[in-house]
Amino acid sequence: MDLNNKKIAVNTLVIYVKLIVSTFISLITSRYVLLSLGQSDFGLYSVVGSIIVFINIIGVAMYTTTRRYINIEMGKGESANLNKIFVVSLNIHIAFAVLFFIIAESIGIWYINNYLNVAPEKLADSHFVFQVSSIIACIGLINVPYQGLINAFQKFWQAAAIDIFVCVIKLLFVFLLFCYDGNKLRFYAFGMSVLTFISFILYHIACRMQWRKIIRYKFYWDKQLYKEILVFNNYTALGATSCLGRTQGANMLVNFFFGTMVNGAFAVAYQVQQFTGLFADNLSQASAPQITQAYSAKKYERAYSLCSKVARMTILIMACIVAPLYLAIEPLLALWLKIIPEGAPLYCRWILLVALISTFGGCLSTYVQAMGKVKWFQITGSIIEISLLPISYIYFKLRYPPETILIVLIFIIIVNLTRSFILLKKIDNFPSQRYIADTYPRPLMVIGIQFIIITIITNYTSDNSNMFITFIYAFVEFLGSVALCWYIGLRKSERTQIQTIIIHKIKNNKNQICQNH
Fold it and tell me: N or C, where is the chain less crowded by C-beta within 10 Å?
C-alpha cells in the first residue's frame, strides 16, 4: 500500500471513530430531545431550521469552494500562497454572512408570518427559533474557511476531536433540557447556538496554533481571484440549491400539505439518512483532498482510479448498513425513541433506499470540482434535482401520501447520475463506460442478492413482529452482506492486499509483545 493510499485509510479510520462516537451520542440526544419537546415542537424546530438552511444555500456551497481552492493551491508546491486563498475566502464568507442575515430578516420572517403551517400560539416560538438559528448560520458561515483549512491539510483527527467534544457537550445540554421548567423549545434553540459558537472557537484555535502565517489577516484586493472564486461558487451554489431542495425544501413542502406532526416523522427519517450516509460519506471525504491534488498535478489516472475504487467501496459499505436496517427499522426506532412518530418506519425505509442509491454518484462531484468545469454540471443537475419540488407538489395536490416525495427522489437521482456520465464524457473526455464497468457490476450483484434475501425474510418467514426474532434476521442479513461484499464486491487482488496488511499487523504486534517480555 503506497503512502497516499495509507493516508486515506488512516483518515477514513479516524473519521469512522468520530462517526461511531458522534452517532451513538446523536442517537441518545435525538431520543431525549423528541421526548422532551414532543413530536410537534420537534417538527417545528426541524422545519424552521429548514428555512435557515434554504436561505443559506450560497454559504453551504462555499465550503466545497474553499476546500477546492486550498487543495488546488497546495498542488502548486512552493509557488503556493495559501494565506491569500484563505483571507480571500474569509472575506467572502463574512460578506455572505451579512447578506444572509439581511435575507433572513426579510424573506425568512415573511415566510414564517404567511406560509408556515403552525398553531397560532406557537408563532412567537417560531420567530425565536428562527432568530437564534440565523445567528447559528452566520457563525457557521465564518467558520467554513477554518474547517476547509483543516480538511485540506488532512488533519481529520483534529476535526474529529472537536466534533466529538461538541457532541459530548450537546449530550450534557440535552439532559439539562429535562430539568428546565420553562419554554423547552426556546431553551433548546439557544443551546444549539452556544454549541455552534464553541465549535467556531475551537476550530479557530486549532488553525491558529498550526498555521498562524496562513490565517494571519492581510487584506488582498485581487479582483480576478475574487471573481474566479465567486463564479465557481455561484455554480456550486446551484448544486447546493438542488441538494437542499431534496431535504430542506421537501421539508417545507411536507409542512405546507401535512403539518408539523408529519414533519416530526420526516425529521426522524432524515436523521436515519444522516447517520447511515455518514458511513459512506466519510470514505469520500477522506479521499477528496487527494483526488483534487492529483488532478491539479495532472495525474489524471490516479484521480480516476481513486474515484472508481472509492465509489465501489462506498456502495458496498452502504449496502452492508442499509439491508439490516431495512429489516429491523421498527424495533430499532422503538429502542431509540421509545415513542415512534406515526409514519416514521415507512419514511425511514424509503429514505434508506434513497441513501443507498445516492452513493452510486461516488466521488464524481469531487472529480468535477477538481477539473473546475462546473458550469453545465451544476446548471443541468440543479434543474433535474430541483424538479423534485414541483413534481411532488403536483402529486400532493392529487392527494398522494407524504412518502411519494421520496419515491420521486429515487427516480431523479438515477436520471441525474446518467446525466453526469454524459457530460463528463463530453466535457473532459472522461472514460464513462470504463468507469461504469469498473465500478458498478460487483455492487449491483451484492445488492441484487440482498434484495432476494430480504424478500424471503419479509414474505416467507413467520413471527416477523417479534423484536428478538427481527434482530436475529437483521444480524444474519448483516453477516451475509459482509460475506457478499468480501467474496463478490472486492476483487481477488484487493482481498489478498487486505489479508496481507492484517497478517503484517498481527506479526508486528506479536514481535512487539515478544520484545517487551
Answer: C
